[in-house]
Amino acid sequence: YVSSTVPETNPITVAHQFEVISHVPVENDVLPPVRPPPPQSALRVAPRYLRAAAPAAATVNFPAAFQAPLFSVRASPFHSTAPAPLAKLNVEGLAAAVDLHGTNVLVRVDLNVPLDKADDVTVTDDTRLRAIVPTVKYLLSKNANVILCSHFGRPKGEIIETGKNGRLNPVVPRLSELLGVEVKKVDDCIGPDAEAAASALSEGEVLLLENTRFYAGETKNDAELAAGLGKLADYFVMDAFGTSHRAHSSTAGVTDHMKMSAAGYLLDKELKYLKGAVDEPNRPLCAIVGGAKVSTKIPVIESLIEKCDTILVGGGMIFTFYKALGHDVGNSMVEDDIVPLAAELMKKAEAAGVQLVLPTDVVLADKFDEAAGTKVAAVDDMAGEWMGLDIGPDSVAAFGEILKKSNTIVWNGPMGVFEMAPFATGTTAVAEMLAEATARGATTIVGGGDSVAAINQAGLGDKVSHISTGGGASLELLEGKVLPGVAALTEI
């Protein structure tokens, strides 16, 4: 990084040393115009991201010592306090654009809650129900008629009366309590009954449609099903982040039949953090990547190498990296077919100037059991029948020093087998470090999956900036993929 006072109108003259990342060809030693950033910003060498953001522009001139082809640079504030705004309409923007009074709004939500196995009716965890309340209550405050739709389990086109793949009846009582209004229910999601129920809605009422996956075409983005849903409302709000990476009839296809489509509060927050805060971070940006297998995280790590300053690696995947470095890993889990790819990832990180940090010590066990014998060993002292099940104390301390200096932190994957108490220390320590970082003003994001269970197990779920509600969707967004359920929303 280089700091520079940037006049509002004068050209930016750069007279500092740069770390060469890559080159882009330019003409006449002058880069294309970019909009000047605010005063006292930092200029970060960033090929791939040159943007012409506005008509008003300044010319960036490099000293003659730099010969063409030159570097591309992105001017970005070093101390951002909030994620970057997104280019998709959100629910408040929808309400500002149109009068929702007495208008039907179809809201795609995720009502996949666990049911008590004893009766297949009682909701045992209402987290996902509570997550949709802000969006629904906001729409009700605008006197809209809210029509909720969701899938429930995987019935695969069959009508199942009860259980985790059955009708949505079990969520109605608790949803009514949370919203403070009676939630009406219809036993179909398209067709005459659904259309009649939607037409009969009065101002400020809530209607719940039946399980969308009772139709096999739902997961195939069936046009007829999408059109049927489109008959029920004029506007659409997407608030099911966990299914936004799927191009289904109720997440993507339905938008073709709506006047406008917007993101609900839950989806909007996910996008602002997982995309906005990672693409335009308050640096330094550090990612913590863990879990058992490298193979499931390769695209994520590749994408993070392009964005991060530091990547901390933990979990079972570290042993595949160690093997790539020539270490004896004993009886630890290794993906032998991924060893060459692990070596390639380390080379890519080095070439990009990104620190990819592996633990220097591990907690070993003589068997995969909570009652196993354990010991701490340096990574070059692993051998025999011992297996690594957590990162060691020296690694925890080293990770902590890096995280203290990071202003944006993304965590995806545990550091060890945290479900077993003897091997939860590393994961719990990371959770505590994120809570401490949040308290000092850093942006901290827990990216779905086991990381969410881990931070909740540590009792620190409310001490981080954002916990993602989507597993696969979180990973795909971090990978830089376009989510169909997001792409389909109205541009602003």
Outline:
The protein is an alpha/beta fold and 492 residues long.
Structural class designation: alpha/beta
What number is the mean pLDDT? Answer: 83
Query: Which percent range fits the helix content?
Result: 25-40%
Number of DSSP helical runs: 14
Radius of gyration: 25 Å
Main sheet summary: 6 strands, parallel
Can you put this structure into words, describing what you see?
It is a single chain. The protein has 14 helices and 20 strands. The protein is an alpha/beta fold and 492 residues long. The strands form 5 sheets. The protein has a 6-stranded parallel β-sheet with strand order 8-9-7-6-10-11, with helices on both faces. Helix 8 packs across helix 9 and helix 10 runs parallel beside helix 11. The protein starts with a strand and ends in a 5-residue tail after the last helix.
Topology:
Layout: E1 2-4, E2 12-13, E3 41-45, E4 60-61, E5 73-76, H1 91-97, E6 104-108, H2 127-141, E7 145-149, H3 172-179, E8 183-185, H4 192-199, E9 206-208, H5 223-230, E10 235-238, E11 260-263, H6 265-279, E12 285-289, H7 298-305, E13 310-313, H8 318-324, H9 339-351, E14 355-357, E15 361-365, E16 374-378, E17 387-391, H10 393-404, E18 408-412, H11 425-439, E19 443-446, H12 450-457, E20 466-467, H13 472-478, H14 484-487
Parallel strand pairs: 2-4, 6-7, 6-10, 7-9, 8-9, 10-11, 12-13, 12-18, 13-14, 18-19, 19-20
Antiparallel strand pairs: 1-3, 3-5, 15-16, 15-17
Helix pairs in contact: 2-3, 7-9, 8-9, 10-11
